[in-house]
Amino acid sequence: MKKKYFNLLIVCFIFEVILMLLPFNLSKKRVLILHSYDTSYGWVRDINVGINRVLKNKTHYFVRWHYLDTKRHPWREFKENSGKVARSMIDKWQPDVIIAVDDDAQEYVAKYYNNNPKITIVFSGVNNEIEDYRFDKAQNVTGILERLPLDAVKEGLQTFSHMAGKTGPIKVFFIGDKSETVMGDEKWIRQYNWNPVKLEGTCLVNTLDEWRDAVDNASKSVDYILVSNYRKILRSKGTSELVPPKELIDFTIKHSKVPVIGTNAFFGDDGGMLAIATSPFEQGTVAAKMAVDILDNKTHPKDIPIAVTSQFVVSMNDSRVKEFHFDLPKVYEASARASNHFYK
Question: Which is it for the CA torsion 289, 291, 294, 297, positive or negative?
């Protein structure tokens, strides 16, 4: 009898605790982290590091993560279906803020909530213009644009050439896949003032054969090849098999007669020699701080100016640097080590 009474008291206590916590949990603000890609992608992992630096102690938020996984499945039908699944989840869960990362998250999900009075959109990692998603007409949107750190790239190319004793104009060529992200990169690369460096051209390709031809042709006439993203290169025309990034970069380095420099931090992890890259940590941290400002300080999204990339990171593969006897200022290695992008 005493045991039954004791058990009843325990049940009553647990029930009271649940009743006490229920109003608190129901009052928590809901934050959805919506990624275009997946966690196998270094860029995504590093953005999450930046987001967690801000949100890890925000126990008064419900934080949910959702991945569209469009980098590994770059076909329109998949993207549209993945977007529908995400929108269905959003309609049911009703987050207060969506931190939408990279362009696919805007195209297939976020733009559908423009001017929604109950949901605020904070974008991150956007290579395109805000007009492409009608964010310029929306009152509930702010965020940070992703732009390649081309000033730092140009300065680096000049430094490397000087250390190598090169005289005359420095010539570069840009190669990438035909993803929405790289098309945005190409636009900014073409518009950028490279002087005194000379941009000899750009080339976006679909297949491994096209990539090989672009590398072979470019390396005959330039001093450096630049690459940003290359995860949507098909094994051959007419197939849906994608070339693994590490295989593609190894292939590229073997075929190129000149140094290949990346503009994304994962380039070093993929086997590339050196990258001067947009900071994924900044993209995550800035977006998360905007979300906190909106939720905790009741700041209206339109009162938060849209930010643009201001930081960069260095990614370095030490074995490649030694293999090509490539001279670098010591600060590059120190920077790569500091951001955990130094690979042996």
Answer: negative
Burial (CB < 10 A; 0-12, 13-18, 19+), residue 3, is: exposed
Per the omega criterion (within 30 degrees of 0), is the bond before 305 cis? no
**Token code pair at residue 229:** 């993203």
DSSP secondary structure letter of residue 340: T
| pLDDT tens digits, 114-139 | 999 999 999 999 999 999 999 999 99
Residue among 24, 28, 65, 40 at smallest CA distance from 288: 65
Q: For the residues 315-322, what does the mean pLDDT come to?
A: 94
pLDDT digits over 212-229, tens only? 999 999 999 999 999 999
φ, ψ at 134 (rounded to 5°): 60, 25
Report d(CA 313, CA 46) in Å as an integer: 11
Residue 26 binned pLDDT confidence (cut-offs 50, 70, 90): low
Q: What's at 177, amino acid-wise?
A: D
Mean pLDDT of 143-166: 96
Q: How close are the terminal C-alpha atoms of the chain, in Å? A: 68
What does pTM read for this prediction? 0.86
List pLDDT tens digits, range 41-87.
Answer: 999 999 999 999 999 999 999 999 999 999 999 999 999 999 999 99
Report how far residue 259's alpha carbon sits from residue 50's, in angstroms, rounded to the nearest whole number.
Answer: 31
Question: CB of 86 within 8 A of CB of 66?
Answer: yes
Q: Which of 8, 36, 46, 12 is nearest to 315 (CA)?
A: 46
Distance of CA 103 to the CA centre of its chain: 9
Give me Rg for the CA atoms of the chain. Answer: 23
